[in-house]
Prior knowledge:
Order of helices and strands: EHEHEHEHEHHEHHHE
Radius of gyration: 17 Å
Oligomer: single chain
CATH superfamily: NAD(P)-binding Rossmann-like Domain
Helix content: 40-55%
Shape: globular
Amino acid sequence: MSQPVAIITGASRGIGAAAAILLAERGFSICVNYLNAKEKAEEVVNAIKHKNGKAIAIKADMGNENEIMRLFADVDAALGPVSALVNNAGINGGSCDLASISFDTLHSVFAINVFGTFIACREAIKRMKQIGGGNIVNISSEAAKFGGTKIAHYSASKAAINTFTLALARETAPFNIRVNAVSPGVIDTEIHHASSPERIENLLKSLPMGRMGKTEEVAELIGWLLSPQSSYVSGAIIPVTGSR
């Protein structure tokens, strides 16, 4: 029996990399998608292969329809049809108030976070219908609920993903395709390490558990959502917030 195939977009680091490694340990053949971080993507692939897993790295811009279609075609050829998709690639567009935001920033954020997720799901669903089912996990953000500070563009893009997840779950349920979203709060990723010590200190004070979440903790939820153990869970948006 062939291995199930998972595509994780934006998987060269952070939550995507953690999910790729965990899913490989659970028997998936993995496509590690990346855009610029080739060396980091190859490190994830090598970590998987070191444990006798199967993985490839494929460069593709998730804000470009043609590149997304090529990504899926390349995975078809190398691994077989996708049975699990994790839409993790995303950008926040930087901190910016609405009075100063540019159309280019809006376009970039929505092209990757929203349009790219739509197109990746479209391509995945075509294949999942042919093989009798599959699973999709969209990575959202708690910013979709509280709006954030000067990140209305990012928050709105993730709110769109929440609504999309609900609609797509209902649309694909008759085809044995489940669609869910994971909504992380403050997770220990590179974006926070770039902050000032003062900001990190103040951020930690706001967290009930006194710490950030770990990428591996988010990956565990993704793994469960892609497993038979969650077979009646679809259309869920699950927060990972440590009570925040």
